[in-house]
TrEMBL record:
PANTHER family: PHOSPHOSERINE PHOSPHATASE (PTHR43344)
Protein name: phosphoserine phosphatase
Names of the cofactor(s): Mg(2+)
Top class in the EC scheme: hydrolase
Biochemical pathway: Amino-acid biosynthesis; L-serine biosynthesis; L-serine from 3-phospho-D-glycerate: step 3/3
Lineage: Bacteria, Pseudomonadati, Bacteroidota, Cytophagia, Cytophagales
Length: 339
């Protein structure tokens, strides 16, 4: 099955900067060594490259200056802004919904991937086939209005914890990436999330957690319809996929919704490769940044052989093109705020 990972992205809803034609002029660096921002980042060469890039493109005297309205940064979510192991977090929400609904559908106890999820066998559920996974999505995520769905997500976040870390799922947001978003906001970037996760799943919590408005959150979608309902208007979630915002879908949605090439792109897997390539095509300057999961103690270490967040083809291209590879173990003083 070629597409089962993108479907579950919906269910859970470069050692050097690649800069266009490096000029011969001396690069501008941050003025103060005691920078207020990025405190959870080690003082590494990679941090320096990131800050130098931002300083240069926001300096009106620099040849790579980019006007405020064109400073667009895009971030993947799973594995880039928060953890994604042992499975995408939206799968845990799916399991939560399945337990709520199974009494109405006793036949699910004998059907895949429902029975695997009910038994807690997430790996087996992931390999049940595309059609079965899509049907699981429809049964647990559709057939209701958007407000009801987002409230279900918020309730789940309050009631459930990560099964291994034993903390709320939103505690597993990366502190260094929160600081990066704050740093970019300070430099007048417009920051967008462009994720394979479900759009309304993320909008239920990501605005508060990341300080990113809902209109700047882009994700996978089911089809929706408008229902006036006797004077009570609703957006109703139909049981049909509309768009998977993964791989080639990411630049398509960026073009359709944002309408401009990003200047700065953050990701962690092969699913972000096309978004990196689209960012690299910026006519003035661009930086592509991959978060490499190398810390098996504080988080999880994985790349080429992982079923979740596979980083293989994109790792090769990042090395070949000189994109920035942030080493989680070496470059981050802490991973989570609670450490």
């Amino acid at each position: 099955m070629r597409y089962y990972i993108p479907v579950f992205l919906l269910l859970f809803a470069c050692q050097n900067a690649s800069v266009k034609e490096q000029s011969s002029e001396k690069l501008v660096t941050e003025a103060s060594p005691n920078e207020t921002f990025l405190k959870s980042w080690e003082s590494s060469e990679r941090k320096s490259q990131l800050m130098t890039f931002v300083t240069n493109i926001t300096n009106t005297e620099h040849s790579q200056y980019i006007a405020t309205q064109d400073r667009i940064a895009v971030f993947d979510n799973d594995g880039t802004l928060w953890s994604e192991k042992p499975v995408y977090f939206q799968l845990y929400f799916t399991f939560y919904r399945l337990k709520q609904l199974v009494a109405q559908h006793p036949e699910w106890k004998q059907q895949s991937p429902y029975k695997e999820l009910l038994a807690g066998d997430y790996a087996a559920a992931l390999h049940s086939g595309e059609e079965a996974l899509i049907q699981l999505l429809m049964d647990t995520h559709a057939g209701m209005d958007s407000k009801t769905f987002q409230q279900l997500v918020r309730t789940w976040l309050k009631e459930e914890q990560h099964p291994e870390k034993k903390v709320p799922f939103t505690d597993l947001v990366y502190q260094p990436m929160l600081e990066m978003i704050d740093y970019l906001h300070h430099h007048d970037f417009r920051v967008f999330i462009v994720s394979g996760g479900g759009l309304e799943f993320m909008r239920a919590w990501a605005t508060d957690v990341y300080d990113i408005p809902s209109e700047r959150i882009i994700g996978s979608t089911v089809k929706t319809t408008y229902d006036y309902n006797n004077g009570q208007p609703h957006i109703y979630r139909e049981a049909e996929l509309e768009f998977i915002d993964d791989k080639a879908g990411k630049p398509v949605n960026i073009h359709k919704i944002i309408g401009k090439h990003p200047v700065l792109c953050f990701g962690n897997s092969d699913g972000d490769l096309e978004m990196m390539q689209w960012t690299e095509a910026h006519p003035i300057a661009s930086m592509m940044v991959y978060i490499h999961h190398t810390d098996s103690v504080r988080e999880w270490a994985y790349d080429r052989n992982s079923a979740v967040g596979k980083f293989d083809k994109a790792l090769d291209e990042a090395k070949r093109k000189g994109w920035l590879l942030v080493d989680m173990k070496e470059d981050w003083k802490q991973v989570y705020a609670f450490e």
